Amino acid sequence: MQKVLVYGAGVLGSYLAHVLLEAGQDVSVVARGARKTELEMNGLVIRHHLQRKTTVDRPAVVKTAEGVVWSAVFAAMQYQQMAEALPALARVETDLLVLVGNNVDAGGMARALQALQAKAKTVVFGFQSTGGRRENGRVVCVRFGAGRLNCGFADKPLDDGTRTALGVLFAGTEYSLAFHDSMAGWYLSHLAFILPMAYLCYAHGCDLTRATWREIGLVIDAMREGYRLLREAGIPVMPEDADTALDRRGKRASAHLTLWVMVKTSIGRLAASDHCRNAVGEMQTMDAAFDALRARHTTLAMPAWQALRAAVPDWQALHRTFDRA
């Protein structure tokens, strides 16, 4: 049994804590305010939407990570929150720190942590393939299978020791680990995939059920343009054939149908709409990062991307609508 801390008790952190507890680890969760009270009174309650079951776990709940030596620490939060938390994370006593969530500057964040921390620690970047929302003291989680953590260093392959350490933490569960040689590239490839859907989501007031078949086709075109932008910028696209695969008629038709089913069902609400509604600040940051990348490569035409982006209300309007919802 290893002493593991999960920093952040939202959808990602809650499911991570659940899996780590399932693996038999001694898990603590950092939470404050109303969320801390919920966890202490009712436990960590997760409604697993597709599996149609509810689990209740009892991790230890702490207000701070300091004063304890942890075998591993998982920080799961929105990108801008992670950036703000770097000084606190640098002070945490652990040899293994895993930053889980969207990231537009993994390399810069790794360097910032190195500069802040008094004792060197291994910093891994990850993205967990789960979605959902918090409601009425519980987390509603959507996932396919047992979930997966895409993980790696910012710009080089993981060493064998770190791979082994991560594997040990989740041993005995069906949760999977996918190791990547460049999480910086993986994150940007993921953004090329999700930003067009986010634009469509905001254009429809975070109600994707209103999306049309033609708009889904436009999303696929925009994804392909986003991948090609990364190639032009010399950024590795993951998977390697992500853009060219969408040129194939069968693959495109399959992607179109999959996205259509998603947006018309509760999966789209939990996997996309809920996150867009609750993470306007993060999506604004992701959008700005891609805009900056586009500005450096102005020779590449991106008509589908631009059409979707033009339909999005301005960010201040989105903040006014959803930040107080």
Secondary structure layout plus pairing:
Elements (H helix, E strand, L loop, with lengths): L2 E5 L3 H12 L3 E5 L2 H10 L1 E5 L4 E5 L2 E3 L6 E2 L1 E5 L2 H13 L1 E2 L1 E5 L5 H11 L5 E7 L2 E5 L2 E5 L5 E5 L7 H10 L6 E4 L3 H21 L9 H20 L9 H4 L3 H15 L2 H13 L1 H16 L7 H8 L4 H8 L3
Parallel strand pairs: 1-2, 1-7, 2-5, 3-12, 6-8, 7-9, 9-10, 13-14
Antiparallel strand pairs: 3-4, 10-13, 11-12
Helix pairs in contact: 3-4, 6-7, 6-10, 6-11, 7-9, 7-12, 9-10
Q: Would you mind describing this structure in some detail?
A:
- There is one protein chain.
- This protein has 325 residues and is α/β, with parallel strands linked by helices.
- The protein has two domains: 3-181, 3-Layer(aba) Sandwich (Rossmann fold), CATH 3.40.50.720; 185-322.
- It contains 13 helices and 14 strands.
- An eight-stranded mixed sheet has the order 5-2-1-7-9-10-13-14, sandwiched between helices. A four-stranded mixed sheet has the order 4-3-12-11. A two-stranded parallel sheet has the order 6-8.
- β1, α1 (11-22) and β2 (26-30) form a beta-alpha-beta unit.
- The longest helix has 21 residues, at 183-203.
- The chain is globular, with a radius of gyration of 20 Å.
- The mean pLDDT is 91.
